[in-house]
Design a protein that fits this description.
heterodimer, A: mainly alpha, two-stranded antiparallel ribbon, 26 helices, B: alpha/beta, 14% strand, globular, TAT_signal (chain B), DUF1501 (chain B), DUF1501 domain-containing protein (chain B)
């Protein structure tokens, strides 16, 4: 980074910053203790006048309600997404289209060929692993990169978000022991059912080899049924903790699931083995079955169907959706409505999402959710309008590779929460000072185009100027529209003035210090604002 | 447990400008609130908070408690083996640890051979084990058990972890700040009204852009955006504003990961960071470290292969390196390692162990009457469902540690709990 010459065109005494400071110091001397806080009111009002946002006449923005809906159900508002929503006839119509199955997602299709190993069979991946051609963990890291780039580029964000939501709910950490051969297929299976019925999703996920290997069901036997998956299925995936089941239910749950085996470390063949299925009567809460057939798949499916339709499962799924998409403490009335909708529609998710966005609680929740580290990173790529290119071998740490290290630096990477309960989705968990400092580091580094600096095309500072010469306050308004999809505020204008050390009326052109030196500070100020760190 | 949120902070007047911020920061310092810290290094989470106002004001903590949570439920019967009980060998025909290989045997118990790096601490009387500890009632859910153990105030609706109560109840303690090195989430044990602070790693405790070319505009601008912001993010930003500069002494310490031969593991990395925080001597009193790969439903393995061998070696080498690395601060530090519950007595068909009940606690460092085993183990049974019966409530052990080392009132840390005498700590 180059040194920053102090801008010459700001008369020091005239900046509102200094004026307000003087006012405060004077008042603080006169008062004592807590009274020192009071005079802040007056300067605030004075400053609001000094930092009145100016309007840049850009392309049309979304209204507040649509902006809220689209921000919450996408990975970040961009000028392109704004155009798409307006083209669809507004937020609700756009949302309805997003819910339809069979929509193509051309933007992400190109990514399919970036990492060929993702499409290899478990046997081939294992062979490459033991031949030390490519470690399984490397394939999984590429899978995480594929996910990050999908989220950045997708034109079907609702489907992508729901895929993420369910994979977190039915968590199989990508770096869990042995799962790498089947983990990409697990993604495919969840993705195909992400906007379908929970009962179908649950059956596919719980009996999938990746889940079986992660929670020990793939090696469970009738002699000693392994309780790992049988317990978490009840506690985490469906009805949740409480007094409604006991340790005998857990044992039955584990017995029902025996038979879904994977020949781990040898052929990796995944197959149902009746000789490993525990037979005999089973009972889990209200579910009872004679379970006499050595092929226990029918009883397992009936059991999973029972769990998916259980009112406690409905409550838990409804609450989790409301916490993810409405607020951390959703009204019980909303949860009840969503749970009823879920049961009435035979566990179909789309009607639940429709009811959610139609609710008063949703409409009143704009900006109430904190972006988690991954959401923040993806939204930052989108806001800055960077273009990531296919990684090529000799290039070290191109953006398509480095993006995973960036995500890790903020404190989370896609689907690697190391426990079966999935990564937290509440605000408190992702509001540690650590996370904020790390987020601001990524914002600043990318605003300066410092890193990643290969395999990525950034906009140059001069590309952000809406005209050859423009007042600073107009520039800030333009940037807020581009980065946040909304107009500037007094606070954002003031913060940008402080960061760039210029006044609102300063005339900015390509030769100005703001463009030549201070632009990273201006961009990162906007990315560090509450508006960018929430959704 | 579904979340491990950062504690909400007590409301304080939002600084309205940089002068006020400096004033308030100075006020906090003279008032005695120095730093606490939380760190996340990969899957290992470190959390810390200051001990007491008095020691913090002097820039010193007289005692540091390090709580190491072995997440996923470590198998205490492999770490500290009840080798005199034949039922142990009957129940584990393939994975039992042979008696001849055990260390520090006393006729009843012996240490896993991979714990050899800990022998010097054992021999010098700085390491002890308390067996058959646990919750007062069995609970085989990881998440329920962790919550119970970390909140440790049964029946209370209030969400406040025992460590949060601890830092809040030490006499003279003022509102605390904390640190989160790594950006992950803070454990339930520290959740509560007392504030904590956090960062990516020790060296990451800084505001990007607050650099030599900046002339203060960067922080002024962030104050403009965030002062007065409500909610979890606003609170976190205030903690960051108030704490970053105070953390400088820790950043000035050397990273001894290589010099002290820490294992190249999550735990090794985490404990090397904890050592820096302690050596920085900025008044940190309580540190928690979460380490999470002990849920061995499969492949506990033997002395030749498997997860237990690997984890035990990592645990021992990390703790040994940590105590060496502490240098002159070593005499302050007490480490307690334990899990949310234990595992079954009998092995399963996958060379693994399902969830059980009673477990072992390890204590090392200052104040520990080490070189011996504590606790009573009832004779084991070898049925599929047999558990280690709990004979010592884990809170009795923790009570002894917090009262002797940190001078805390156990009634406030573990409300309503009547501890039994374990005798593992020497009184101050």
């Amino acid at each position: 980074m180059s040194p920053h010459p102090a801008p010459a065109d700001v008369p020091a005494e005239a900046t509102p910053e200094r004026a307000s400071r003087r006012a405060l110091v004077t008042a603080a001397v006169g008062g004592a203790g807590a009274a020192a806080v009071l005079p802040a009111v007056a300067p605030d009002r004075a400053e609001a006048a000094s930092y009145r946002p100016r309007r840049h006449r850009g392309t049309p923005l979304l209204g507040a309600a649509d902006r809220h809906l689209v921000t919450r159900f996408s990975y970040g508002l961009t000028p392109g997404l704004t155009r798409a929503v307006r083209g669809a006839g507004g937020g609700r119509r756009w949302f309805e289209r997003q819910l339809q199955a069979g929509q193509t997602d051309a933007a992400t299709r190109a990514l399919a060929s970036w990492w060929p190993s993702l499409h290899y069979s478990p046997q081939k991946l294992w062979q490459r692993n033991i031949d030390e051609v490519e470690g399984g963990w490397e394939v999984m890291a590429d899978y995480q990169r594929w996910l990050l780039l999908r989220r950045i580029t997708t034109t079907r964000p609702v489907h992508e978000l729901m895929t993420e939501f369910w994979m977190n709910h039915l968590n199989v950490p990508v770096h869990a022991d042995a799962v790498f051969g089947y983990r990409f297929d697990y993604d495919r299976v969840v993705r195909a059912r992400a906007l379908g019925r929970f009962s179908e999703l649950l059956k596919a996920a719980i009996t999938h080899p990746a889940m079986g290997m992660y929670l020990s069901n793939a090696v469970s036997t009738k002699h000693h049924p392994n309780e790992n998956l049988g317990r978490e299925l009840l506690e985490l995936h469906t009805v949740g903790r409480g007094n409604h089941y006991d340790e005998d239910d857990v044992k039955s749950s584990a017995r029902i699931l025996t038979g879904y085996r994977v020949d781990m470390w040898r052929t990796w063949e995944a197959r149902y083995r009746p000789e490993d299925h525990w037979t005999g009567p089973v009972k889990v809460m209200g579910f009872e079955h004679r379970n006499a057939d050595p092929d226990g798949r029918r009883v397992a499916e009936a059991y999973l169907d029972y769990l998916a339709h259980h009112p406690r499962t409905a409550q838990r799924i409804a609450r989790k959706l409301a916490v993810k998409f409405v607020r951390d403490d959703p009204p019980q009335a909303l949860v009840d409505t969503l749970a009823r909708t879920y049961l009435r529609h035979d566990t179909a998710i789309v009607p639940v999402l429709r009811a959610l966005v139609a609710s008063r609680a949703f409409k009143a929740s704009a900006g109430d959710k904190v972006r988690d580290p991954v959401e923040d990173l993806v939204a930052t790529y989108r806001a800055l309008g960077v273009r990531v290119t296919r990684p090529t071998r000799p290039v070290e740490n191109p953006a398509a590779v480095a993006i995973l290290w960036q995500s890790d630096s903020i404190g989370a990477v896609p689907h690697d929460w190391p426990r079966p309960d999935g990564a937290p989705i509440d605000n408190d968990s992702w509001s540690s000072p650590a996370r904020l400092l790390a987020s601001m580091d990524v914002h600043f580094t990318m605003s300066g185009r410092w890193w990643p600096n290969k395999g990525i095309a950034y906009r140059e500072p001069v590309d952000w100027l809406p005209a050859p010469a423009v007042r600073f306050d107009v520039l800030v308004d333009h940037l807020c529209q581009q980065l946040l999809g909304r107009r500037s505020t007094s606070a954002l204008l003031k913060a940008c003035c402080q960061a760039a050390r210029v006044g609102p009326a300063t005339r900015i052109d390509r030769e100005h210090g703001v463009v030549k030196w201070e632009f990273p500070r201006v961009l990162s100020t906007i990315l560090d604002s509450p508006a960018h760190l929430t959704r | 447990m579904t979340t491990t949120p950062l504690p909400a902070r007590t409301a304080e007047a939002a600084p309205c400008c940089d002068e006020f911020a400096r004033l308030s920061r100075r006020g906090l310092l003279t008032g005695g609130a120095a730093l606490g810290a939380t760190a996340v290094v990969g899957s290992a989470v470190i959390t810390a908070a200051t001990a007491s106002a008095a020691s913090a004001a002097a820039g010193k903590a007289d005692s540091v408690l390090v709580v190491l949570s072995l997440r996923g439920a470590a198998d205490g019967l492999s770490l500290v083996v009840p080798y005199s009980d034949p039922a142990y060998y009957r129940a584990r025909p393939r994975i039992a640890i042979p008696k001849s290989t055990l260390l520090a045997t006393d006729g009843t118990f012996g240490l896993h051979p991979e714990l050899r790096p800990l022998l010097p601490l054992w021999t010098s009387g700085e390491l002890a084990a308390v067996h058959a500890t646990g919750l007062p009632a069995p609970n085989r859910s990881h998440f329920a058990a962790m919550e119970a153990i970390e909140d440790a105030d049964p029946g209370s609706e209030r969400r406040q972890g025992w460590l949060n109560r601890l830092v809040g109840q030490i006499p003279g303690s003022s509102p605390l700040q904390g640190f989160n090195l790594g950006g992950g989430v803070v454990p339930t044990s520290l959740f509560g009204p007392n504030p904590v602070m956090a960062a990516g790693d020790v060296d990451g405790v800084r505001f990007a852009g607050d650099d030599e070319w900046d002339e203060g505009g960067r922080l002024r601008s962030l104050h403009t955006l965030w002062d007065g912001q409500r909610g979890a993010l606003g609170t976190a930003m205030r903690s960051a504003f108030d704490s970053v500069s105070d953390f400088e002494p820790v950043k000035a310490t050397a990273d001894n990961r290589t010099a002290r031969s820490y294992p190249n593991s999550e735990l090794g990395r985490a404990l090397s960071q904890v050592a820096r925080i302690v050596r920085g001597d900025v008044g940190v009193g309580v540190v928690t470290v979460d380490q999470g790969a002990w849920d061995m439903h499969t492949d506990v393995g033997t002395l030749e292969w498997g997860a237990m061998r690997r984890n035990a070696a990592d645990l021992a080498a990390s703790i040994a390196a940590f105590f060496t690395d502490l240098g002159s601060q070593r005499s302050k530090v007490t480490l307690v390692a334990f899990s949310e519950f234990g595992r079954r007595v009998a092995e399963n068909d996958s060379w693994g162990l399902d969830h059980g009940y009673g477990n072992v606690m390890l204590l090392a460092g200052a104040g520990v009457k080490g070189g011996r085993y504590y606790g009573t183990m009832r004779p084991l049974e070898d049925g599929l469902d047999s558990d280690v019966a709990v004979t010592t409530d884990y809170r009795s052990v923790l009570s002894e540690v917090v009262t002797t080392r940190l001078g805390a009132s156990r009634a406030s840390v573990f409300p309503g709990f009547q501890p039994e005498d374990v005798g593992v700590m020497s009184s101050l």
